[in-house]
Design brief:
The chain has 160 residues and is of the alpha+beta class. It is 29% helix and 24% strand. Strands 1, 2, 3, 4, 5 and 8 form a six-stranded antiparallel sheet that branches. A two-stranded antiparallel ribbon has the order 6-7.
């Protein structure tokens, strides 16, 4: 079993409910022992003229291959009503694979670790809450170090 770190995000509709529903569905796949960070709110990154996001990091243990993990996360996004209209656009749910143990993978459909993880405070803050001492397999820095060094100026607000 390897640790699987995911990031949930939502900026449309009942954001808290979408995050909870995604966690519940992921728990049904990866097991009820999943952990979740607090909720964090931040302004949209990339495409800024849209509602603020709620984000939450999750930690599961799994042996499913990364491509199956991706298939499950994309199916949950679709089931919850995600529409892919524009890059970084508003969405009811987004599920990103951040880390999968020490796996380093680059395919046409998936890059692990997430290629922008170290550049996004909204990702690092909840991830640091769960596993501050986890070492990024490529950058060889802990999540806490990456958060301290993060160049992202967007404020991340702890919600609950």
């Amino acid at each position: 079993m390897r640790p699987l770190y995911l990031l949930l995000g939502s900026n449309l509709g009942d954001r808290v409910s979408f995050l909870q529903e995604a966690f519940d569905r992921l728990s049904g796949i990866f097991g009820e022992s999943g952990q979740k960070s607090s909720l964090y709110e931040t302004a949209a990154w990339g495409l800024e003229n849209q509602p603020a996001f709620l984000n939450q990091a999750l930690l599961f243990q799994t042996d499913l291959p990364p491509d199956q993990v991706l298939a499950h996360t994309q199916q949950i996004e679709q089931d919850l009503g995600r529409e892919r209209k524009e890059r970084w656009g508003a969405r009811v749910i987004d599920i990103d694979i951040l880390l999968y143990g020490n796996t380093i993978l680059e395919t046409q459909n998936l890059t692990i670790p997430h290629p922008h993880l170290h550049q996004r405070r909204f990702t690092l803050a909840p991830l640091a809450e769960l596993s501050p001492s986890f070492v990024h397999p490529v950058l060889k820095k802990t999540i806490a170090q990456l958060l301290a060094d993060c160049p992202d100026p967007l404020e991340v607000t702890l919600m609950c």
